[in-house]
Amino acid sequence: MPKILFIFPLIFFFVLGLPNRVVGNDRLEVHFFGSRSCIECFEIKETLLKPLAKEYPDIISLHLHEIEDKESLRLMLKLEKQYQVEPPSPQELFLPGTYLAGADAIMESGEALIRKYLADPESWEPVPGDGADTGEDLLQSRFNEMTFVGIIFAGLVDGVNPCAIATMIFLLSFLALHRRRRSQVIAIGLVFTGTVYLTYLLIGIGAFQVILMLDVYRQVSLFIRWSAVGLAGAVGLLCLRDALLYKRSGKTGDLLLQMPRPIKLHIHKLISGHLKGTHLVAGAIVSGFLVTLFEAVCTGQVYLPAIIAMTRTGGTRTTGWIYLIFYNFLFVLPLLIVLILINFGLTWHKLARTTQKNLAGLKVIMGLVLIALALYLALG
Predict the structure, then answer these.
(1) Averaging pLDDT over each range in 172-181, 244-253, 318-327, 332-341, which range is the top one?
(2) Sign of the dihedral defined by the CA atoms of residues 292, 295, 299, 301, in that order
(3) Do 221 and 253 share a domain, yes or no?
(4) For residues 110 and 53, is the Cβ–Cβ distance under 8 A?
(5) Cα–Cα distance between 171 and 273 in angstroms, integer?
(6) Longest dimension (CA), the chain
(7) Residue 183, CA distances (Å) to 108, 154, 294, 340, 342 in order
(8) Per the count of CB atoms within 10 A, which of 9, 71, 250, 338 is most buried?
(9) Do both 171 and 68 map to the same domain?
(10) Is residue 4 part of a domain?
(11) What are phi and psi of 22, to 5 degrees?
């Protein structure tokens, strides 16, 4: 009996003296980061990681992270910094002391690497990531890098969309025909542009919210993503086709991508009907609102893929709204520039000639930006 009592304290102190790695880490931590709308991520989880976790339920501690979630993205960025991941990938697998980046690398080497760790429990250290650094700066930096340049290009291209420019030309020609003073033209133009901005922004906010709500459903998210890829890619190629045809013939009738004639006539009717009387401000507001709704059929070719790209960045929700507001400012910026030039003598005749002269170039730029958007959505 005394011997047994003597042995118990020895066992107690022996356990206390064991390294923390052995006592506290009796399971292998595996962290995988990917997008919920990524086909490769779904394949990695369903055919590689989940079967292994099911095969070793008491040994493998599997953590599946979706980078659309802010906390998951923050953790991924911290691990990328600690593991010195270069270059980052949309799919990343972290184990104690090592990582795999990219769908191909994970599918080819992931199982062998995990089984190697399973055979060596001494290597089961916890995957780092918790600490004082919240990762907010890393998160913000990544969001800015991925989005800012793209937003500038997409917003400006949407703003110089021939549909929007054609509407402004008609507005200016109508006001000139009714002999409005230059100050009146500028005032009406500012009110009209402000209304276009707010209406377009509200359309974007609605689309942004709907996409975020539907994004939690994987199949719907995949449908939205690949529909946007198809739309942006197809419209981009058609823009390049239109540019080539217009360069050859110089005839706008050959263009496939232009505002349908019934909608164009309806917009002209709206502007004519609301800007004839004395209530010019009210008329500019009503016509700006209605015209923007009809124009969205044409300008949405760039706007919708751009919004979907914004929801795929993984940035904070507040920053997403800021980029949406900035995008819409860029959309109306060409209209504001036209109004400034009017103050220095620009006429609608000159604007129309300049637009026609550079129409092929505008189409090429639109096409390239849309194809870039399609590639971003497809690869991201």
Answers:
(1) 332-341
(2) positive
(3) yes
(4) no
(5) 12
(6) 114
(7) 68, 31, 27, 11, 10
(8) 338
(9) no
(10) no
(11) -80, -40
The verdict on 110 and 150 lying in the same domain is no
Q: Which of 198-212, 229-243, 264-278 shows the lowest per-residue confidence on average (mean pLDDT)?
A: 264-278
Q: Tell me the β-bridge partners of 33.
A: 65, 92
Cβ distance 120 to 60 under 8 Å? no
166 and 289 inside one domain: yes
Express each pLDDT in 338-378 by its tens digit: 888 877 776 767 777 777 777 788 788 888 888 887 887 77
Q: Could you tell me the pLDDT band of residue 12, with boundaries at 50, 70 and 90?
A: very low
The pLDDT value given to residue 99:
93
* Whether the Cβ atoms of residue 4 and residue 16 lie closer than 8 Å to each other: no
Chosen domain end from 83, 102, 134: 134
Whether residue 191 sits in one domain with residue 117: no
Do the Cβ atoms of 83 and 99 come closer than 8 Å?
Answer: yes
For residue 87, cis peptide bond before it (omega within 30 degrees of 0):
yes
Give the per-residue pLDDT at 53.
93
Percent of the chain residues topping a pLDDT of 70:
77
Please indicate, yes or no, whether residues 194 and 234 belong to a single structural domain of this protein.
yes
Question: Are residues 55 and 173 part of one domain?
Answer: no
Q: Which residues contact 331 (CB under 8 A, 6 or more apart)?
A: 155, 158, 159, 164, 197, 200, 299, 303
- 214 and 354 in a single domain? The answer is yes
- pLDDT tens string 206-259: 888 887 777 656 677 677 778 878 888 888 888 888 888 888 887 777 677 776
Look at the block and give the residue holding tokens 């800021």.
322
For residue 7, is it within any domain?
Answer: no
For 316, residues 6+ apart whose C-beta sits below 8 A from its C-beta are 70, 139, 140, 143
Residue 196 lies in a domain: yes
User: Structural domain of residue 107, as residue ranges?
Assistant: 18-134
Query: Helix or strand or coil: residue 129?
Result: coil
Taking the C-alpha atoms of residue 239 and residue 230, their distance in angstroms, rounded to an integer, is 14
| Number of domains present in the structure of the chain | 2
pLDDT at 190: 87
- CATH (domain of 124): 3.40.30.10
Evaluate whether residue 11 is within a structural domain: no
